[in-house]
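Entry 14. Two folds queued back to back today. First construct below, sequence then structure tokens.
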Amino acid sequence: MLQKLWRYNRSVIATWLFSYLSVLLVPIVSSMILYSATRSLVEKEINRANELLLTQIEMSIDSKLKGLDQLSLEVALNKNVASFTNVEQPLSDDHYYQLFNIAENLRTYQKANDYIEQIYVMYASSDTVVSTFNHTDSRGLHALMRQRQETSFEDWRKLFDGKYIYQYSPMQYWKEGTPLPAVMLARSLVLNNPTQPYPILIFLINENKLLESIPQYTDSSVLILDKDNRFIAASKDKQKLLDYLPSERLHGKKGLVYAEMNQDKAAVSYIASELTGWKYVSVLPADIFNEKMEYLKTITRLSMAMGLLIGLIVTIIFLRKNYMPIQVLLQNMTQKFGFRFDGKSNEYSFLQNALHRTFVEKDEISKLLKLHNHTIRAHFLTRLLKGQLERKLPLRESFVAHNVHFHSDRFAVLLFSIDAYGKLQSEEAEDSFGPSTQLLHFILSNVIGELAGEDATVYTTEVNELTACIMNLNSCLSKEEEDEALIRMAVQTQAFIKEHIHAEMTIAVSGVHRDVYGISQSYQEALEALEHRIVLGSGQLIRYKEISMETARPGRNYYYPLSIEQQLVYYVKTGNLLKSQALLGEIYEANFKVHPVSVPLAKCLLFNLASTMLKTLDEVSTISKRNFEAHAEDVERLLNCDTVQDMMTHMNRVLEEVCEWIQTDKKNHHTYLINDIRNYIQSHYRDVNLSISMIGESFSLTPSYISKIFKEHTGETLLDLINQTRLTAAKKLLSEQNLTVNEIARRVGYADVSTFLRIFKKFEGMTPGKYQKI
């Protein structure tokens, strides 16, 4: 019997079975939760022990790295190291003596820190590398120290590219022809001379001494990764760890992940140093790590299996006992009332549905008919407007079937386009099927029907997001009265909607035509009239008769010559807002006020203006140091404008933002240029060739232009600034050093001592000798 009932998966027996199993699952789920909590606790205890070990290693290595930072500062403050920065090839005897002193100092630093294998200082200006025992060039250092034996000099040199360097890298150090594993710290020494490239200090750390604080275990391995997950060092199994370690999964400050390590599952614990960002990783075979948890898992599985087996036996016994009365009731219903239970629903639902099925079917059919009547009628009116009715079918029968009754053969069409929803404005108002749109269409239908009165019979429908009204005019009206009635209904409807709902709409009125088949012609006329909203603007009442008269006039092209476009682009690029807006107003007046253009030409002009604005904004963002981030959004809004007035308003707003930004950018550019000139003079005042021409050449500007800009923004000349900078340095030398006037003149950039005396007396009112005595 159970097999027979089991075919009906929606039967009440399935519900009972689910209920019994749900109760049965309670202890099973509890056991799983208990197992999960216990497993998590054991895992945390084991992982905590690994974290303590890694924390000790981290503290030991971080203390050594802190010592390297302190030692770097001492090297940067060393006068011998700093004085060699400006030296260039070829080297003199004095330079070799300086290199000897630097090597002596580096040996002192190395002896104080036994974990440092070697110290190098690399000078880019002279391509010189100084170590504790000799000096060489960058290629010589590449031969001694590189990542791998096959690493090329160009790839190795990329490690030291950049203005400021601070990085750790694993290296192989060739000592007496044998490669030794080591860790390199390379960092730039920031000195007081920003014009020269910073020398690079390189510490070569012995990997064995770096890892001497790591305990050695038989089963586990410990390794170190830098902040970018690059390998630094390992206690053992280096190649295996390099090949299989899932470094991309080691996220956060600490954690535990499981990974496949050469077909062996391993538990990977790690912590990250807050000082250097290095990750200290412990790799332990998973079977050792999970030994206690596997035992706990076995006990939990056995208890769950026994509970499930006993529970299933009890569930089957009670299901059979409780279902027997329901089965007897279904058999009686089948024999007496002819209903057959097919197992597609619950037994209780089947009994209830059998009693009410007739009434439910009747109500559903009635609702469907009412709903389809409205949809079918709207579809019929839409086809009538578009002229898509088949002439073979009798129209009179179609009208009766759709409850449409025309009392005359005079027809016109009114089209309503919603421009603003007023009180009904909401997030879904833009959706043609949104509740706000449907409500406004419903209000329009009722208002126009009331205002029509005896003058016309009105039928409304929605066509392409527009409300279309078929006006069946009274046959008693004359042609003049027909026109007056249509205008009255349109104006009053527009006023009513604006007063009570605050909604804005554009109304198009077609001409009056005879015969039912003239409705499609009226609809096309209304559509053509509605297109003139582009020129006339939103919220207008547009009559086809007036538009057709305007269209009949001799056509002409719109006014927007190439010279005017280029002039507009020039005004915008130079930030001239007044001239840009004036020229835009001239274009608008010429095309839409003096001699209005047609709708197709107006559309062409809209796209032409939008294209001009797009090209202008692209050129502005290309030639500028910055990027005008909003120009793409502005152009998209420009292209979405419905009317010429909207486009002109938006273009004026964009012009204000662009011109204001360009003017601000020009001011900032001059400020940056003046500061760069001052810094350049301060760095080169010792050069006897320093002049306005030399400054202009350095900034790719003409001497006259750079002199004019500097004078306008500072009030002083470039020549005066050069002389004042040199005299400031000369006065300092006169006060602090026992040098002759000739020596001081040469040191501050004067090749002729007489020129120095004349300029010093001009600015200070006394000779250098007298100034020195005072």
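Second construct, same run, same settings:
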Amino acid sequence: MGEITSLPVRVDSHSPAVWGEHVQATDPPADSVGYPRRPRAALTSFVGRRRELSDVKHRLTETRLVTLVGPGGVGKTRIALEIAERSRRGLRDGVWIVELASLRDAQRLSQVIVSALDLPDQSNRDPLDKLVSFLLERQLMILLDNCEHLLQDCARVVETLLSAAPGLRILATSREPLGIHGEGICVIPPLTTPSARHSHTAKAVIHYEAVSLLVDRARHVLPDFEVTNDNVEAVVQLCERLDGIPLAIELAATRLRSLSVTQIVERLDKRFTLLTGGDRVAMPRQKTLRALIDWSFDLCTEHEQLLWGRLSIFPDSFDLDALEEVCGFAPLIAESLIDLLDRLVAKSIVLTERTGERVRYRQLMTIREYGAEVLEPSGEFSTLKRRHRDHYLRKAAVMVERWCGPGQADALAVMTEDHANLLSALEWSAHTDGETGTAAELASLLRYHWVAGGHLSDGRRWLDQLLGTEAMSTSQRGQALWVSAWIALMQGDTDDAVEKLIECEEIADTLGDRKMGAHATQWRGLHDFATGDVTGSITRYEKAIKIHTDFADTASVLTALFQLASAQTYNAQDEAALKTCRRAIEMSEQLGEQWNRSYTLWITGLCHWRRGEPESARTAALQALRLERVFKDSICTALTIELLSWIAASAAEFQTAAALAGAAAAVWAGLGTDVKAFGQPLHQDSVHSAQKTSEALGEHAVTALARRNATMTLDAAVSLALGGPDQTRSDKPTEKSPLTKRENEIANLVAEGLSNRAIAESLVLSTRTIDGHVERILTKLDFASRTQIASWIASQRGRSSRTRSG
């Protein structure tokens, strides 16, 4: 999959006499730029890339110039060669390769193309004129490989040739587009790669392109290599840390002669020396990973190189504001950064990620580590790290200040995207002299990110680590204490929480800080509720609400209100609880606030359920869940799905109750906590509902339904609770097919061994239509072969059969 330029396309032999001998009887010297070399078949198999091949082929039907762009080593050349080979039979005069990587004299470009096409014209005419005359009536494709260092000249020649020769098609590969009107651009991404953040089985990961390539190439040096349960974690880490770059994976595979996958992963911090020894006949820049990136670096201007180095300070994606605030200092100015960034994007040094109108940027890990090496001798590291930390500190402060308004969901989403940046900022601050207090301040300000964003473990770990030091002010310590206690309560650690809150109260009294004291009082209220002192929690909540109101801290007032309503519900004060909920909802609606509102709706539903009003309870719970679809707050989602399970059990809808309980358990598992952490009263209701369901269905049936939903994602759990795919019925498979009805029909015929032509005849459709359907089926299922479709269909039939028999 790497850009190994020594893998030429087989040339069409059904051409006029002038095309009959593409290669001269005696090959020229290997270093003769542009002369044709004897074609040879690819020595390695073509792995994956079905989606990209389809995209390029489609673009070639729309325009006569298609440029494959992407970072070095991503596989542009190999894809182009595969496309050229597949296209040659449809072109009367064949497909011709022009390799430009070694060409340094741009004035020789036209002559190089002339030589590659082996033109018989021996006159003294201008080479471009020769090309125009020769191509005028021809129908062929020219592959211009590696244009990035000759962009302007390639653009000029290509535009001239396409204007003169209507039967000509040009397929180019480059790190950036040629920039010609009508150019079709296909961005070639890295190979699909499993995430090391999730667990995988050996059988499942082989369907990822990066893993398939690693296995394929590894077997060239280690014939019995396979992914096993012992090495699957290392395989996933290797593919992810190499960014799914084909060349890097191929180079790593050669090391399996003498190292295990785990040993390679352990040495990846030395990747530029480890990943060497590729194809002996490859271009020099493709024999080592460093040489490949050196090539890209040398094509950048001095300021582009400087920005490349500075961008390595971001451990993951970043937005434009971060770029300007962190990197915009002399000799680079903020106003020039957009142009520099645009040029790095064009050169495939920086990749873009779009979510609606929001655009973020990132570098592949290999590119970023190269940039870190560039940055090291500049002496800018500490300056950049401080600017980086200060940017996210300001961002966190703004999030808290503006939390109680309509932008909550977007703020949470952006912070989640910046999670790696936040952890990096904390890491640097915690381990830099004089910065620990600021680290504690940042960790405290990230309170909503930790709790509402579902990052409890990270928040607790950092706050506790910082609280274990003395290098911060008393005020900073007090803030960190109550935020850490809040998270501890979410995780069910009531003993640790109360110790921190008592210390926080002492600090607040010493400083005379009533605002800090109110936070301590509020979370002491939740501690009381969680440990069974419902009356005591009501007293504390009411006190905290009064002080929060005095300080106009509306966000804290709303949170304390829904907590108060929860305590009132379990203190037989139903009317008071509903009144408190109405007060909180009215305030939320006035402010456009939704996060506290979703919790308040959950409490409203809980109160109605305990009053024996199931329809009102379900209505409120579903309203809460619809809001959570936007927020993705796992805690409120889990609590609300729990409530819907209890409502179903009360209505004797026991299969639904069991399925919802399983979905809630899956969300809890993702958080690392459970309903018990939120108070004995809630836990008792959960236990009672589970017992009632088990008595009705039997332990075996309940366990089966729970197990079926145990691995549900948050979105899938919400979808089920909102009335999505019914996973409780025995006549339906447990997973919804990603295929349409027609695609399912065709997939079943593929599984029966029918060819596309036979399927077309059976369904009275054109073969081309069936080709398109099969292509989409493979893409949707992320498969590479018809055999995989057949296996998948068999597994679906087996699952359906097991479900019916159960």
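Quick look at the second one. The CA atoms of residues 662 and 709 lie 5 Å apart. The chain has five domains: 17-187, 202-290, 300-379, 387-546, 741-805.
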